[in-house]
Amino acid sequence: MAQHEHVRVAVIGSGFGGLGAAVRLRREGITDFLVLERAASVGGTWRDNSYPGCACDVPSHLYSFSFAPNPDWPRTFSGQEHIRAYLERVADTFGLRPHIRLGHEVTLMRWDTDQLHWVIDSANGTTVTADVVVSATGPLSDPKMPDIPGLAGFTGKVFHSARWDHGYDLSGKRVAVIGTGASAIQIVPEIQPQARRLTLFQRTPPWVMPRMDRAISGAEKWLHRTLPFTGTARRGLLWGIRELQVGAFTRHPDQLGLVEKIAKANMARAVKDPQLRAKLTPSYRIGCKRILLSNAYYPALAEPNVDVVASGLAEVRGSTLVASDGTETEADVIILGTGFHVTDMPIADRVVGAEGITLAESWKDGMEALRGASAAGFPNWMTIIGPNTGLGNSSMILMIESQLNYMADYLRQLDALGGRAALGARRSAVGAWNRRVQDRMRRTVWNTGGCTSWYLDSSGRNTTVWPGTTAEFRRATRTVDLSEYEVIRPPGQGSSDRAARGGAGATGQDAFAEGSAR
Questions:
Q1: Residue range 163-167: average pLDDT?
Q2: pTM score of the predicted model
Q3: How many CA atoms lie less than 13 Å away from 310 in the CB half-sphere?
Q4: How many Cβ atoms are within 10 Å of 371's Cβ, its own excluded?
Q5: Cα(97)–Cα(114) distance, rounded to whole angstroms?
Q6: For 203-221, what is each residue's pLDDT tens digit?
Q7: Any signal peptide, and if so, which residues (predicted)?
Q8: Which partner for 36 in 72, 104, 276, 490 could form a disulfide, CB atoms 3.0-4.6 Å apart?
Q9: Separation CA 168–CA 338 (nearest Å)
Q10: Which stretches of 228-295 are DSSP H helices?
Q11: Alpha helices, DSSP H, located in 192-226
């Protein structure tokens, strides 16, 4: 690669969002693009998270691109290795390899107001300029390390679940697992048989539902390969069921009581000790935090070599772990299942917009982006899986594909403007969108369920989850509404007033308004 290279579009990251963007660009006839990836291979979070038991909690046929169905999924809920292999196949099948630059960690993206392009510096010393940046780094890419006094002085081994040390043998060790999120409940059953003693530090118990997982039969695979519409129908059924569930999360959280009973029954089958059951029973409405799926988590916790400390880790003294309730535990290894930087994504510190401030500074009072994609003050910059695009019950691939529709129309609108031009989201449009989102958020279980979750930022605002159906989001992002953008021309050429006249994208706003009224 040349030391300096200019492309029309630079995509940052090669997970589902980045590879999806690359495929969509090629399908739109755009080949002048690069995918900048910091690691040595593609895969995003499904490359980084390789801990024992790592698997998806969304059914396989729904957790895949609609344009790249996989009739050969081995299980109804796929493991990490199968999802990563799927992404590698997507990169090969759609001819993306020539566009991908591995080992290119972006250290800085700066908007050049004179040239109307982005200047992108990488850690390896290369610089790329791009008319448009599509940031697809994802919210589950940078592990969150807890600030625990004495942790740096721990005498044993410490690693995060997303940076698993496969060379470290847990056999016969005293293992401490910190956290009870989606990663921890998959890790614990896998490592419990190896550990001499396993101590789980639980700040808040999760709701855990049965995992309806099974091997997909050869006959099913044959049917989906031979008659592809059957795979499409299966995907449609899985999608429809989850769309029908959205109302309980977003408008009627009181309807989730029956689901809580199912989760409690799941616990009661495996945990006979009433004291342990009391520790593991949440005091908040199910759905407020992410609902987890496992058939093995509760049985593992009931094993004689496992202790559950119903308190967070407060301090480390040498090899002694001290919980907030004063409980002391000796450990040889600490595994941190402490999540990721979701509402304070590190990439935001590396993006400098038209006003000379970083995206992190712009978002100091909370993340917000027009239709989850465009931030005010950052022209020709879009994010995939941006603010308020997360889901609590369905597949993020559906949201990603909706945002790819928006990206494609964004590029079409730039082409239609002609000449050198950029689109900058109007602050008024970003604010109006965010107010509508937050207004709908007030009734949701994520805001009213009585818990503190990673969906909320430091001020307690939910800047993570989408408060509607995936179909609503698809309608709201089908096309770009030019009235929500300012057209930017090079200095001295003035600005077009076309954006003020509106455009074909009004449907998206109307769809959102209709959803708000329901």
A1: 97
A2: 0.93
A3: 11
A4: 28
A5: 32
A6: 999 999 999 999 999 999 9
A7: none
A8: 104
A9: 20
A10: 228-250, 257-270, 274-280
A11: 218-226
